[in-house]
Amino acid sequence: MTKEEKVLVIQEIKDMLQDAKVVYVASLEGLNAAQTSDFRRQAFKNNIKLKVVKNTLLQKAMEQIEGVDYSEMFPTFKGNTAVMIAETANAPAKLIQGFRKKEAFPALKSAYLQETFYVGDNNLDTLANIKSREEMIGEIIGLLQSPIQRLISALENKEEAKGAKTEEAPAVEAAPEVEAPATEETPEAPAAEGEAPAAE
């Protein structure tokens, strides 16, 4: 690779990292060509930018990024390296996890998200369980909506209960009228039967 080519690659990596909030560095070592292209396809489907890079060029690009000191990640830049950039915090971790159900790789080297560094593959589960900004907003909205929904539900139930009472009222009044003649007739029948033997 010529000096000019290296400069171009460094610039390309810088452009990827410039406004990235979620940066994962993974090892695809151990994956064959077919598995690597399958992993790339899945990354694309999940809106994850993936680029296999040279460690020295990745480090140089990261050193030139303003606002974030990536130096904590540099010791993990060994062997085969792929940079993964995503909008959703846990998307790359979930992708790696899902792929690992069938293969031994990829492995997580390090990650930077939510202004925190995670170094080592042992952080994969933690990263996969991190809630994305969208999920957190959804939960907050759900929490805010639930008291309002309970109030609306209570008001609706109150209205239904009022409506049910007014509908039941005539039925309650009509019931004694139907029962009244039945209670008057029943004592008369045994009384008449009881009188007949007494007269004999």
How do the strands and helices of this protein lay out in sequence?
Layout: H1 3-17, E1 22-27, H2 33-45, E2 49-53, H3 55-63, E3 81-86, H4 91-100, E4 107-113, E5 116-119, H5 124-128, H6 133-199
Antiparallel strand pairs: 1-3, 1-4, 2-3, 4-5
Helix pairs in contact: 1-3
In words, what does this structure look like?
This protein has six helices and five strands; from the N terminus they run αβαβαβαββαα. It is an alpha+beta fold. A five-stranded antiparallel β-sheet has the order 2-3-1-4-5, sandwiched between helices. The protein is 60% helix and 14% strand. The longest helix has 67 residues, at 133-199.
What are its keywords?
alpha+beta; elongated
Q: Name the helicity range.
A: 55-70%
| Rg, Cα atoms, Å | 37 Å
Largest sheet: 5 strands, antiparallel
Q: How large a portion of the residues is in β-strands, by DSSP E?
A: 5-15%
Query: Which spans have pLDDT < 50 for at least 5 consecutive residues?
Result: 182-196
The arrangement of helices and strands along the chain is HEHEHEHEEHH
Q: With helices defined by DSSP (H or I, 4 residues minimum), what is the helix count?
A: 6
**Structural class by helix and strand composition:** alpha+beta
Overall average pLDDT:
79
Q: Name the strands of the widest sheet in spatial order.
A: 2-3-1-4-5
Strands, count: 5
N-to-C CA distance: 134 Å
Task: State the shape.
Answer: elongated
